[in-house]
Amino acid sequence: MALIDISLPRSVARALRLPAKSPRRQQIRVLKKLLKKARFTEFGQKYRFDEILLSKHAGKKFQQLVPTYDYNKIYAEWWHKTLEGKRDICWPGKIKYFALSSGTSESASKYIPITNDLMRGNRIVMIKQLLSLRTYHDIPVKSIGKGWLMLGGSTDLQKGPGYYAGDLSGITAKKVPFWFSPFYKPGKKIARTRDWNSKIEAIVEEAPNWDIGFVVGVPAWIQMCMEKIIERYQLNSIHDMWPNLAFFVHGGVSFEPYKHGFNKLVAKPLTFIETYLASEGFIAYQDRQDTHGMKLALNDHIFFEFVPFNNDNFDADGNLVENPEALMIHQVEEGKDYAILLSTTAGAWRYLIGDTVRFVDKERCEIIITGRTKHFLSLVGEHLSVDNMNKAIKLASEELNVNIPEYTVAGIPHGLFFAHQWWIACDDAVDPELLRQKIDDSLKELNDDYAVERNSALKEVYLNVLPVSKFMEFMHLKGKIGGQHKFPRVMKGKMFEDWATFIETGTISKPA
């Protein structure tokens, strides 16, 4: 029986048959549901949730009474109490699970609260995405009923005083619904493995015993796993092992830099399905093939606000200013970049997640991820986004027929002016100077500000080509191997210091 035909619990089925409403009405309903549930918490009492609920304009009142938060601020004021085991702080009850998330720029781990309400909302959004596959054309739906290889963090979570902590993917796998267990690979035993290399080896060993139709994970690690399987069993493609493999569900980073490499591993096209699943919640998903955008999950467990990503709302380091302009879903415009504020069923309130998005279809509420608030380069006003970089890498790799799965960029001094330094991961033979020119020329076409500054204060672009293994080795030394960890596209601060040391010496400095 295909997974898509499994009978769903009645409560979930009701949640999936939602009446058509305007995005604004959907979001106000979600906000009121969140406020009602959390009104007796410490947070809800301090910020007068009851008063907001009585207001005729709940959205505006919410924005007036509740301040914005980034992780450091909300942890210092509120979440540290939940980690200490206190109840009813930002969400009713005691928080028993925390997702460890360090992002790609900070070195210290963040403890993101995970609740049963959040996990339930995530599952509902996941099922909605599954059901949306029925609308795809020429999709082998039978593959959904095959095995699902979910390559994530260990389910053997760290035990704290009254809580468990680990990767969200590990927590999710540990709490897999009973009806999903027959499909779930690599299985609970391998999923508990903490050592990433040991986990990959175990998956490679078991690969011939599975009939995989779906793979789920971060592109870099899925690609590495497939390459090891092909190498171990001397296959021409991954389809020699898994002929029913049809879907790859990915998220966390743009897939464009990886697509060329993936095409070399398959014998027939895969359907690539993008998701936007963060530690803070399941934010959006691709529900149709003929678009690059993902549909926001507006009617479930997250209330969204959108902060225009500009100099009025963010400082030069990408930090949110006090009292920024925050828009609701009906106020956004297509083609502009916004940072997202989330309020969720895990006690995140007006929380800056750190990603920037752009609406590509406002009517359908479809977005693309364009980067991070702290992962952009604007030394002299070039306003270079990760989205620009991804497109330039894609164009260059296709034109030169090379695979570039990873890259990173830093801004550096150049006399009295500035330059960009690129490091490119590529195991194919490529002329670094030609690659540099291709990327530079593409960015000039993609970004008018960049083109202007290349004739002004942005004096030079440098590029070094490194083996892919060099990037993986750095991630290993940083303790960011596997799971949901992604290589930072822009190097700044302590991460850049460590990267520069690593490039020069092959090691990184350890904290005192």
Automatic annotation (TrEMBL):
GO terms for molecular function: acid-amino acid ligase activity. Residues 388-492 form the GH3 C-terminal domain. Residues 298-361 form the GH3 middle domain. GO terms for cellular component: cytoplasm. It holds the Pfam family GH3_M. This is GH3 auxin-responsive promoter. The lineage of its organism: Bacteria, Pseudomonadati, Bacteroidota, Chitinophagia, Chitinophagales.
